[in-house]
User: Which sequence fits this backbone?
């Protein structure tokens, strides 16, 4: 049976100097446990710490702690963007599907795993709850496991349970899970983009969307449809009403028929209660949810993703702009490629046509003639079937490079279209 955690000094002695530490990801980050870990940061000086998409500034990234760690994230998330842009943390630009392989191959070998789990049930099982992703691959390495046991962590269905005997130390502490906060209604641009995206969704489609204002707006426009499916990376509260009302029933799936599939979730207390012991929703490792061989077999897979910029060839940048890191490739390449290869599949890319530069105050286009050498290409043009801005839909599949550029110029901001045409001629 696991030992009750009293302090991290014993943990530090067991894992040795400069250990590799992996933290439960996204909305599942154990806040109280991480606070105690951060307070003991000098004991772990030089540790390499791996995380994924922290949604609030984590204790290990705050002053007094972060200088002791070499923090690597597979996706910055809102909680780590500032640290990344200050050079205090680095991004490992890795597709979600490839992350478990980093651990199963031994390229990254974990010494310490910090989790948040549900209390154990009558059979001695705890649940990983709202985040599964690559935890199984880390657990297979048999690192020292320290878990915060939180009664507010839902017991979720799917590949989420592990025996309490797999935990070495536990901290019993009840607290709210990280919350997405009040849902935003977005602005007129978000609303227009959401309407355009929703117009492409057909009855029977199996959807993947991300998390945030635009994905929730898109989901809010689908209540008139029927027999939709869900196979996504992250499940948000925007899905709850569609599932409860039977709009999403997963009836068209060959595999996991009747079941919504994800690898993680984020929402509010009501949404987490909805997930608790809900057999209609299953969580599985991202080696399954994001696997290309799995995705291409999902008829009608509709991948809906946002990017920051596109060039006139149709290549996408979802990672940063103006030298500022915002995100990482994440699940975008996995799902876009899978949807493009699926029968009746659609890879849909949404972006705002422009933004106002913070320093100059001038409007800059997000659809550009070409990327410079420093711009990351998060998704290649061959995996974009539709590009959408607030100005309309560009259907790109099957178009020549010239036709593709013309279609993208048509959805660029009107102030930038003439310049794009001129730049296209020059190229």
Assistant:
């Amino acid at each position: 049976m696991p030992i009750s955690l009293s302090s991290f000094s014993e943990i530090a002695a067991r894992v040795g100097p400069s250990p590799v530490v992996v933290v439960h990801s996204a909305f599942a980050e154990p806040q109280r446990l991480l606070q105690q870990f951060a307070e003991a940061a000098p004991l772990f000086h030089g540790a390499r710490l791996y995380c994924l998409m922290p949604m609030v500034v984590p204790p290990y990234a705050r002053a007094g702690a972060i200088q002791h760690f070499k923090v690597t994230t597979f996706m910055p998330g809102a909680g780590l963007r500032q640290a990344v842009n200050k050079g205090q943390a680095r991004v490992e630009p890795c597709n979600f599907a490839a992350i478990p392989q980093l651990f199963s191959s031994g390229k990254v070998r974990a010494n310490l795993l910090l989790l948040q789990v549900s209390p154990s049930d009558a059979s001695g099982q705890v649940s990983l709850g709202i985040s599964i992703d690559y935890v199984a691959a880390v657990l297979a390495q048999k690192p020292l496991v320290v878990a915060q046991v939180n009664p507010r962590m839902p017991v979720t269905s799917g590949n989420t349970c592990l025996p309490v005997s797999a935990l070495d130390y536990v901290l019993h502490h009840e607290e709210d899970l990280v919350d997405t906060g009040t849902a935003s209604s977005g602005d007129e641009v978000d609303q227009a983009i959401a309407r355009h995206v929703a117009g492409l969704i057909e009855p029977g489609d199996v959807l993947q969307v991300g998390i945030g204002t635009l994905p929730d707006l898109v989901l809010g426009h689908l209540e008139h449809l029927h027999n939709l499916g869900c196979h996504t990376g992250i499940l948000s509260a925007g899905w709850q009403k569609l599932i409860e009302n039977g709009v999403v029933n997963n009836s068209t799936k060959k595999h996991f028929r009747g079941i919504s599939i994800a690898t993680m979730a984020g929402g509010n207390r009501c949404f987490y209660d909805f997930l608790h012991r809900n057999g209609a929703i299953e969580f599985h490792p991202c080696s399954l949810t994001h696997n290309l061989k799995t995705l291409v077999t999902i008829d009608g897979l509709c991948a809906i993703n946002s990017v920051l910029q596109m060039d006139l060839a149709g290549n996408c940048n979802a990672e940063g702009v103006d030298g500022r890191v915002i995100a990482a490739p994440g699940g975008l390449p996995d799902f876009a490629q899978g949807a493009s290869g699926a029968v009746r599949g659609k890879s849909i890319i949404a972006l705002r046509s422009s933004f106002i530069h913070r320093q100059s105050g001038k409007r800059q286009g997000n659809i550009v003639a070409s990327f410079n050498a420093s711009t990351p290409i998060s998704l290649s043009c061959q995996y974009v079937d539709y590009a959408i801005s607030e100005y309309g839909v560009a259907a790109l599949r099957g178009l020549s490079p010239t036709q593709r550029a013309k279609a993208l110029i048509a959805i660029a901001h009107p102030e930038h279209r003439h310049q794009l045409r001129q730049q296209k001629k020059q190229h």
Residues 310 and 316 are 5 Å apart (CA to CA). Residues 414-426 form the longest helix (13 residues). The chain is about 25% helix and 25% strand.
